[in-house]
Specification:
Oligomer: single chain
Distance between the termini: 67 Å
Number of helices: 3
Radius of gyration: 17 Å
Number of domains: 1
Structural class: mainly alpha
Strand content: under 5%
Shape: elongated
Helix content: over 70%
Order of helices and strands: HHH
Length: about 80
């Protein structure tokens, strides 16, 4: 029981640090990724914390990619009008 409390506290600490160290758009990707990664990691051998950390990183990466694509589409649409 002590081990699960320690893991829970560690997971909460990792999540809090991840949220504090990201911008709003990146935090959104991190939260979604951490949830999915945590669940997947838990079912894949009780590695929920590791899965959450990896999911957070992937979510941040994906959010940045989507933001870049939206900016590029805005530039293309903006250049077409004159």
């Amino acid at each position: 029981m002590t081990m699960s409390i320690t893991k829970t506290m560690l997971a909460a600490s990792v999540a809090a640090l991840a949220l504090l160290s990201t911008q709003a758009a990146e935090a959104k990707g991190c939260i979604k990724g951490a949830i999915v990664g945590g669940v997947a990691g838990h079912y894949a051998g009780h590695h929920g914390v590791l899965g959450a950390a990896a999911g957070c990183l992937y979510g941040r990466h994906r959010a940045k990619e989507q933001e870049r694509q939206q900016q590029q589409q805005g530039q293309v649409n903006g250049q077409g009008r004159t």
